[in-house]
Structures are given as C-alpha cells and as structure tokens.
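Duplicate of earlier report; Orotate phosphoribosyltransferase-like protein input re-posted below.
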Amino acid sequence: MTYDDSLTKIHITQPLTSKTIVELMEDYPNLEKITCSKSLYDRISKKYISALKELEIIVEISYEWGRKPIYGDEIGNKVIELVNNGVSPEKIANTLNISLKTVYYLNNKFSNHDIKLKRGRKIKYDSVIRNKIKNLHDKGVKPKEIAQLENIPLRSVYYIINSF
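Output:
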C-alpha cells in the first residue's frame, strides 16, 4: 500500500498499539496530528498518548461520521449555473457526465433559491390546446373530429380528454 509522505494529519478507526504507532511513524514521517472518535480515544492507553506527545504528535478527538461527498462545490455550482441558463437536466447530466438523479440532488443542495426542475417528459400540447380539446368534447364533438380539426393523433385526443 502506498502512503502520502507529506500528510501531516490522519484519522484512525482502530485503537493505537505499539505496533501501529511504529507503522504510522514509518508510513507518515511528517505526521503531526492523529484524529479519532471519542469512543476510540477512550480506549487508547494514556502511555501511548503521552509517548506521542513527546514525539510532538497530537492525538485529538474528531467526529468524521458518514460518507465523504463525491461531488464538491465546483460541480454543484456548475449545475446551478446551467439550470439558471435554462439547460435541461438531461443535457446537464450529459455535459457533466453525471447521472440525472445527481443533477436533481445537486440542484436541491446548492441552490439558494427555489429553482424547481420539472421531472419527467415535457407536455407535448400546451394548456391552450388542451383546454380547446376539452371544450370541444364538452360541446359534444366526437374525438375523431377533434383529432382532424386540431391535426393531432386520435390517441392523444383520448389521452387529453381522460386526463381532465
């Protein structure tokens, strides 16, 4: 396993033993600080902590719970910028090479104002045409005639009628 020699701070998840201290000193020669959880700190021998203090290595409690974020501020800000420019979520996902779900997640996480991305497909027929079809149907015009008048497929007419 390769280690970064320039690291000055590491977080441990296993109790310190004399063997692990020696390994840490060999792997990280510039080590200045070791962090661990409170429960782990309580299990570390006070002799080890004082020995590390003599070596000018600080052992302190640090809470590092949960998974580290995959996408940082840079990608999140790019998503917000593209959303503000009116780019569709699908195009954002393709240009940034991230999943569509991630685009929605990053938009919700990084937006300071309510920019709602519409989920799903765009409506093919706007509300004016939909209302016109509904009114014609309410007047008793047959769906086949409505389809011919509006020059749209019959199944779309039925779909619009049934959606009201």
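The longest strand covers residues 33-36.

Merging into the original ticket.
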